[in-house]
Amino acid sequence: MGPTVGQGQWPDMRTAVPGMGAPPAGPAQMQCAAALQRLYGWLQAVLPQAPQYTGAVPLAVEAVRLYRNGHFDACLAQIQQVADFIGRGGQPYLPTQ
User: Region Disordered: what ranges (predicted)?
Assistant: First the structure.
C-alpha cells in the first residue's frame, strides 16, 4: 500500500494504468503508460525518505486521471509538471528507462 498523504491514501498507480496487458493504441499512450509506471516507482522509493515531495502525489494522480480519459498528450505534460515540482525541491527526477 502506498504512503499516506493528508487524510487519505494515494492510489496504487500500478493498477491505475489500464490496458497494460493489451497493445497500446499509439505511441503517446505507450509513452504515457511507461512514464506513469516509472513515476510511480520513483515516488514509492523516494517518499518514505523525503516526505517533502508528497506534493507531487496530487499532480501524479491528475496524470493518471488524464491517462484514463485518453488525454495522453495532456498526461505527458502533467508528468512534466511533476518532474518540474520535484526538480524545484532539489531532487533530480531521473526515472529508469
Answer: 1-24
